Amino acid sequence: MDKMGNNSSSLPTERKSGEDEHESGAVAVQSCEFEVFGIVQGVSFRMYTQRKAQSLGIRGWCMNTSDGTVKGEIQGNSNAMHEMKLWLERTGSPTSRIDKCVFGETAELPQYTHEEFTIKV
């Protein structure tokens, strides 16, 4: 018992701000693919994408395509995913021009399938 007479074992478990939690107590992991169109190659778009993803705790990957786009996959909690999607749609790297960003269907995963966010060559 704590100083207030409460049984500390009944207190909710601490979790990081912004994490979604299932009834089971497991953190929900969302995943979706993306492709960004516009001037997104030769403007450090992948590097800035990796930095933004890491700052949000997003895992996954991105790569240049032969069509001049950048595509990839992002995984994270719903708040981080929302913020990352907005960044991919609206911000990008300082010298990029985003015409559009297309997202695949968001899936819920039992766990992460990537250890970190990487740039594929």
Automatic annotation (TrEMBL):
Hydrolase listed as a keyword: yes
GO MF term set: acylphosphatase activity
Region named Disordered: 1-26
SUPFAM superfamilies, sorted: Acylphosphatase/BLUF domain-like
Known catalytic reactions: an acyl phosphate + H2O = a carboxylate + phosphate + H(+)
Keyword S-adenosyl-L-methionine (UniProt): no
Catalytic site: R46, N64
E.C. code: 3.6.1.7
Residue intervals of the Acylphosphatase-like domain: 31-121
Highest taxon of the lineage: Eukaryota
Keywords in alphabetical order: Hydrolase
Similarity comment: family membership: Belongs to the acylphosphatase family.
Protein name: Acylphosphatase
Organism of provenance: Drosophila lebanonensis
Lineage: Eukaryota, Metazoa, Ecdysozoa, Arthropoda, Hexapoda
